[in-house]
C-alpha cells in the first residue's frame, strides 16, 4: 500500500513543528491538569466508589508513566509526542465519561444500565466524530499557528485565572456537603471538558503523516529526533518566497523541501502570488516555471521589535479576547518577506541552493 496523498494545506499544517523543550513543558502540564486534577476530581466529591476509582486508575497511571518517560527524554522520543497527545485525548475522554457515570450511579443513585449504554454511545460517537473532523479541519487549511512564546494574557484569561484562584477554596469547602444540584453541574462541566480534549485526537493524523514522510520531515527539520548534544546549531538568516499563481502541488512542495530543507540558515519558506521587487536589481523571469524563488535576509531583532510595537498598539483593542495569532503572523510575514531585504532571485532551484550553500561557508 502506498503512502496516503495529503493536500498542500494539510502538509503545511503538519510541518508546523514545535521543539522538544516546548513539548516537554506542554505534555507535563496537560497531563497534570486534564488527567491528575480534572480526571480524578469526581472521586473527591461526594461518596467514594472504589470500583469507579480502580477503573480510572490504570489508564491514568499509564498516561502518567508515559508522560514522565517523555519528559525525561524529550529529544530522543520527539517522534512519539503526537502519538502521546492522541492517547491523552482518548484517556481524558474515558476518565470524564467514567466520572459522569460515577456521579449518575453513585452520587445521584440511578439504577439500571440505560445511562451506562447511552453514555458509552455518546463517548464512541464523539470520539469518532472528532477523529474525522480534525482531519477535515486541517485538510481544508482551517488551522491556526499557535505561538508558544506569547506572553500577553487577555483580559478574559486574567478574569478566569482570578476566578479559579478565588473560587477553588470555596469549591474544596463545599465537597464536605455534596448537593444533588452540584452533580448536574459537574456532569455538564465534565462533558464540556471531554469536547475540549477530544480536539487533541487530531494529533494521531500528524503522527501518521510524520511516520509516513520521514524523509520530508528530516529534510525540513535536520535536528528531528536527534539527541540534544548532537544537534547542530541553527542559524536563521534567510527566508525564501515562492512566487506562483495558485497553490503548490504536493510534488512541488516536496521538491522545495528536498532541495531547501537541509539548509539551517533558512528560517521560513512561503508561497506568495506576487512580490514587488526593485526592478533595478531583480528582473522577473518569464521562464520562472513552475515558480520563482526570492531569497531575503532575516533580522530576528526586527521581528521582535515589530511584534512589540504591534502589541502596544492592539493590546487594548483585543483586551478581552487576546491578540489573535493571525496578528502575530502578519507581523512576522511582513518582516520575513520584505522585498527590500531581497538578496537573490532565480527560477532555477539549483541556483538558489548554490547561493545558500555559499552563504553557509
Task: List the keywords.
4-stranded mixed beta sheet, 13 helices, alpha+beta, elongated, single chain, disordered N terminus, 361 residues
* Order of secondary-structure elements: HHHHHHHHHEHEEHHEH
Number of domain modules: 2
Strand content: 5-15%
Flag low-confidence runs: 1-7, 142-151, 279-283
Oligomerization state of this entry? single chain
Percent in helix:
55-70%
**Biggest sheet, strands in spatial order?**
2-1-3-4
SS class: alpha+beta
Whole-angstrom Rg: 25 Å
Number of E-type strands: 4
Largest sheet: 4 strands, mixed
Give an overview in words.
The protein is of the alpha+beta class. The protein folds into 2 domains: 205 residues, no CATH class; 128 residues. It contains 13 helices and 4 strands. The protein has a 4-stranded mixed sheet with strand order 2-1-3-4, covered by helices on one side. α10 links the parallel β1 and β2. α4 runs antiparallel to α5. The longest helix is centred in the N-terminal third of the chain and has 27 residues. The N terminus is likely disordered.
Secondary structure topology:
Blueprint: H1 8-14, H2 20-37, H3 50-72, H4 81-107, H5 114-139, H6 155-174, H7 180-198, H8 203-212, H9 214-220, E1 238-243, H10 250-260, E2 266-272, E3 292-297, H11 300-314, H12 325-336, E4 342-346, H13 349-360
Parallel strand pairs: 1-2
Antiparallel strand pairs: 1-3, 3-4
Helix pairs in contact: 2-3, 2-4, 3-4, 4-5, 4-7, 4-8, 9-10, 11-12
Amino acid at each position: 500500500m502506498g503512502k496516503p496523498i495529503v493536500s498542500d494545506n494539510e502538509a503545511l499544517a503538519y510541518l508546523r513543528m514545535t521543539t522538544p523543550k516546548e513539548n516537554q513543558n506542554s505534555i507535563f502540564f496537560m497531563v497534570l491538569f486534564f488527567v491528575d486534577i480534572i480526571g480524578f476530581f469526581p472521586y473527591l466529591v461526594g461518596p467514594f466508589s472504589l470500583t469507579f476509582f480502580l477503573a480510572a486508575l490504570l489508564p491514568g497511571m499509564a498516561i502518567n508513566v508515559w508522560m514522565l518517560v517523555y519528559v525525561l527524554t524529550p529529544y530522543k522520543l520527539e517522534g512519539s509526542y503526537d502519538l502521546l497527545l492522541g492517547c491523552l485525548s482518548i484517556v481524558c475522554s474515558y476518565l470524564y465519561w467514567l466520572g459522569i457515570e460515577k456521579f449518575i450511579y453513585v452520587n445521584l443513585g440511578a439504577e439500571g444500565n440505560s445511562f451506562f449504554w447511552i453514555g458509552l454511545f455518546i463517548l464512541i460517537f464523539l470520539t469518532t466524530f472528532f477523529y474525522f473532523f480534525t482531519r477535515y479541519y486541517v485538510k481544508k487549511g482551517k488551522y491556526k499557528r499557535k505561538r508558544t512564546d506569547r506572553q500577553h494574557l487577555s483580559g478574559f484569561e486574567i478574569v478566569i485565572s482570578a476566578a479559579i484562584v478565588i473560587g477553588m477554596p470555596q469549591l474544596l469547602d463545599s465537597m464536605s456537603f455534596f448537593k444533588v444540584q452540584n452533580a448536574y453541574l459537574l456532569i455538564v462541566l465534565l462533558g464540556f471538558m471531554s469536547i475540549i480534549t477530544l480536539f487533541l485526537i487530531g494529533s494521531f493524523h500528524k503522527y501518521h503523516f510524520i511516520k509516513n514522510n520521514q524523509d520530508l520531515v528530516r529534510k525540513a527539520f535536520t535536528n528531528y529526533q536527534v539527541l540534544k548534544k548532537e544537534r547542530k546549531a541553527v542559524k536563521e538568516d534567510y527566508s525564501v518566497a515562492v512566487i506562483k499563481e495558485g497553490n503548490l502541488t504536493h510534488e512541488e512542495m516536496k521538491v522545495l523541501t528536498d532541495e531547501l530543507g537541509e539548509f539551517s540558515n533558512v528560517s521560513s519558506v512561503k508561497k506568495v502570488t506576487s512580490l514587488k521587487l526593485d526592478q533595478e536589481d531583480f528582473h522577473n523571469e518569464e521562464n520562472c516555471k513552475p515558480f520563482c524563488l526570492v531569497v531575503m535576509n532575516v533580522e530576528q531583532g526586527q521581528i521582535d521589535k515589530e511584534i512589540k510595537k504591534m502589541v502596544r498598539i492592539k493590546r487594548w483593542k483585543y483586551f478581552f479576547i487576546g491578540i489573535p495569532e493571525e496578528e502575530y503572523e502578519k507581523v512576522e510575514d511582513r518582516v520575513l518577506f520584505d522585498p527590500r531585504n531581497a538578496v537573490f532571485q532565480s527560477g532555477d532551484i539549483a541556483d538558489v541552493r548554490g547561493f545558500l550553500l555559499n552563504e553557509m561557508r
